[in-house]
């Protein structure tokens, strides 16, 4: 069965510093991976996805993610964090029937 | 622009009441999903539907049912609400293949 793990409940960074939110996955077959962001009392917003091709995927709001097959990871990154990036981030993997399996989520706090 | 709407943002119901949560998408998507979101547990799939009048159980269907009479509308029903169904409910839709799942704003349901 497909699964994802987000090993950190919370990540704290200073504004202007680079940020990384970690995700590892377990799949049978090719992985199709997604990152979503959720602001307080809102639904999930799509950030980016990896289907195939380049291991570095660029997404919305300056975010990117690096797919690493040997480490089964799909970490979310941003070169310079903003206070407005503070939110809850979810990693997800698509299973064989178009369903998404989500990680538990990571709270990102960016302090000024 | 992509649009998934949910009938209520906040809902308060009493134990034993029948509760209807409605979701409408305007993207002509075949697939629709209902999740519940609880702190530390991420998103868990309740039910999903690949077509009108079709429904399949997700990971936590107990205590819930669904209805999909029209392609654009997917309803979640709590036959007899219980306090352990207090949660955030999120609806999503997607087309076929590797399309992105788009989410509604969520309904925060409190059962007293």
Oligomer: heterodimer
Shape of chain B: globular
Low-confidence stretches of chain B: none
Distance between the termini of chain A: 41 Å
Mean pLDDT of chain A: 93
Report the mean per-residue pLDDT of chain B as an integer: 93
Can you describe what's shown?
By secondary structure, chain A is an all-beta fold. Chain A is built from no helices and twelve strands. Chain A has strands at 3-5, 10-14, 19-21, 24-26, 33-38, 44-50, 56-58, 64-68, 73-78, 87-94, 100-102, 106-111. In chain A, strands 2, 5, 6, 10, 11 and 12 form a six-stranded mixed beta sheet that branches. A four-stranded antiparallel beta sheet of chain A has the order 3-9-8-7, with no helix packed on it. Chain A has a two-stranded antiparallel ribbon with strand order 1-4. Chain A starts with a strand and ends with a strand. Chain B contains no helices and eleven strands. Chain B has strands spanning 4-6, 10-13, 19-25, 31-38, 42-49, 56-57, 64-70, 73-78, 87-94, 102-103, 107-111. In chain B, the strands form two sheets. In chain B, strands 2, 4, 5, 6, 9, 10 and 11 form a seven-stranded mixed beta sheet that branches. The interface between A and B is medium-sized, with 21 and 27 residues.
Helix-strand layout with pairing:
The complex is a heterodimer of chains A (112) and B (112).
Chain A: E1 3-5, E2 10-14, E3 19-21, E4 24-26, E5 33-38, E6 44-50, E7 56-58, E8 64-68, E9 73-78, E10 87-94, E11 100-102, E12 106-111
Chain B: E1 4-6, E2 10-13, E3 19-25, E4 31-38, E5 42-49, E6 56-57, E7 64-70, E8 73-78, E9 87-94, E10 102-103, E11 107-111
Parallel strand pairs in B: 2-11
Antiparallel strand pairs in B: 1-3, 3-8, 4-5, 4-9, 5-6, 7-8, 9-10, 9-11
